[in-house]
What we know:
Low-confidence stretches: none
CATH class: Mainly Alpha
Membrane topology: Multi-pass membrane protein
Order of helices and strands: HHHHHH
Shape: globular
InterPro entries: BioY
GO molecular function: biotin transmembrane transporter activity
Number of domains: 1
Mean pLDDT: 91
Organism: Comamonas antarctica
Number of helices: 6
Keywords: Cell membrane, Membrane, Transmembrane, Transmembrane helix, Transport
Radius of gyration: 17 Å
Amino acid sequence: xxxxxxxxxxxxxxxxxxxxxxIAVMGLIPKIDLPIGVPITLQxxxxxxxxxxxxxxxxxxxxxxxxxxxxxxxxxxxxxxxxVGVFLSPTAGYFVGFAPAAFTTGLLMALLxxxxxxxxxxxxxxxxxxxGVLVLHAFGIAGLVLVAKIPLQQAFWGDLVFVxxxxxxxxxxxxxxxxxxxxxxxxxxxxxSA
Length: 194
């Protein structure tokens, strides 16, 4: 019994570390800079995948591990950014929003149906759209208003440029989840069995 618990804890820690590293690697892919000071990056796809594949708590842990590494100065954000200065930049809301976005995505993934790989992918699409788009963008807009001092209406309209790309990331996340569901039918999406 003790070995089974220890093994599960080790697997959980390994998955948390792996997803934090995956999000860091996604930061190596060149960013696309926009005039409002917030770049388009692939790292939000990693946030969505962490929630869908790890569940709310392990997904949150992976994001927090990544955030601590960035705050410690490691240049893991797209464009090689890192350090506490990211909390004072126009991207601060999006960066802080990674954690609640992953948690919300994982929570929804745990609640939505997963009887077949196709239904699991559909659930991932919904969960990542709510967590990775709605929640993350709400934090992003708040950051633009509070940190960049952009008026709310302007921040909202400026944020809309990210939505089409993030919806494509939701589809990519659903495809990854579908592949995992087919290859590993016993995988516990959202931290719970199907």
